[in-house]
Design a protein that fits this description.
Number of helices: 4
Shape: globular
Largest sheet: none
Radius of gyration: 12 Å
Number of domains: 1
Oligomer: single chain
Structural class: mainly alpha
């Protein structure tokens, strides 16, 4: 369980995309760059942003957050 001061990987992803000034579609395109057949769909991508109370919520693995940071940070406006 995460402490109240530790942000979840999902929260960190949300902040990353907001700080970069990208739409979800733009962020997903950057995230999928280089993943080939392992690319994520928009439905799955949006599940990473869903409320933890939602049935659609999907936990973002730390390795995927690291990948997102590597692909999205350079695009920060």
């Amino acid at each position: 369980m995460e402490s109240s001061t530790t942000k979840s990987t999902n929260e960190q992803l949300r902040e990353l995309v907001e700080e970069a000034g990208l739409t979800q579609a733009q962020a997903l395109a950057a995230f999928n760059d280089g993943l080939g057949p392992a690319s994520y769909s928009m439905v799955t991508w949006k599940a990473f942003f869903a409320s933890p109370d939602s049935k659609k919520h999907r936990k973002l693995k730390p390795a995927l957050l690291a990948h997102a940071q590597a692909k999205i940070r350079p695009l920060k406006k």
